[in-house]
Amino acid sequence: MSTELIPCKVGSTNTLSQVLSERYRYPQDFFDEFALAGELSSDAGFFRFGPGAICYGRSCVGSRESRVTSPLFDALQHAVIRDHKLRLPFDPTEVVDNLRWERYADRRGPRRDYKSLLRKLYYLVRPLTNLPVRRQIQRFHARNWQELPFPHWPVDTTVESLCETLLSLALEAAGAERVPFVWFWPDGASGCVMMTHDVETAVGRDGCADLMDVDDAFGVKASFQIVPEGRYAVPREFLETIRNRGFEIGVQDLNHDGLLFENRGEFLRRVRMINRYASEYAARGFRSAVLYRKPEWYDALDFSFDMSIPNVAHLDPQRGGCCTVLPYFVGDMLELPVTTTQDYTLFHLLQQRSIDLWKMQIELILQKNGLASFIVHPDYVREDDTRSAYKDLLSYLRSLREKTDLWFALPADVDGWWRERSKMSVVKAGNSWRIVGEGAERAVLAYARKVDGNLVYEVAGAAGS
Prior knowledge:
20 strands, 13 helices, 4-stranded mixed beta sheet, globular, disordered N terminus, alpha/beta
């Protein structure tokens, strides 16, 4: 193995530290160069970087396993600081992208083809089945979900843990006490809450007005994702009512048949129509049916943001998960990950009417100052028990809003903020720092520093989180 160092300057493109500089927006030249500790392996696999981060990718040292269930090599011991330079045994940007793009999930070979065939058969016979039958099929598919070790259920924050460890090492290498950065949310908010409603049937469409009444009663605005074809008519008056009441409209797939990503040629044919509906609906956001996804194809979609990649997908037809609770870019498109369990999953697969799981997920997400995003269908909160559970959720969220500084936002607002933040910079201002760039008046300066071996954040004018 070669010991030649491959230097990567902070702030430049295609660097080891790119994922850190993009995540934190710290001063461009604050840290010295990172370097690879050797030549990266030709093969990719799973390994650890400390106790809180399971990585997938290539590395310079140790072994890389094909399965998470195997004992994993810990690469943290091979992260070395020498002459104020941090030498790493892997490329953090590559590893984080592998997690966020779900490249660790094996979708190749006979098993993938078998699942594809089953999915086609399911959607072929679906119109002939009723809801109880579909629930039984879905429960059978999800029967072993509790045995899946990765991503971590019920919320996976591997990307957060990995970036925090890397930033701690960078601080140690620089001999710095703390580093300034652009806080994650506008006006110093400790986290973000985002509500979305996927409208799957004509019954759901007809229940949207009532659901907006419920949301308004609790001071929450949401985005309604509309299926353009095949499921129900979409009158212009229906769309105007949603907009006029201060809610948002997104496009949900084309016809919700679950086959959008089965074939590249068919995908491109459908995308032309989907993009037309995006223009017609003035929709900036997209979500695929059943959260099927293939981010490598997203460049064909004419949307500003996507909302189709779950944080943990143990109970979804397409398993995987992006392992982060913060937005991130997939090419030019911003991904707003689904970070909580869908209402259908909670009510009909887990058969729960309590919001305890949602509350647990919210707590874990906010511990990392993340985005708590929800999918609640007007189709599935019509009965007294499910409607009551949804109201319990809204009541809990309202109590959090009254006690904390959470930002409740529509998806388009989150998209707008994250895009502005991605272009902001922290620059010297005398003996201090300031944030420059469009939207900087809403941005808040924060500091990351190590306390008792852990990375903690301090937000200017607020208590440290």
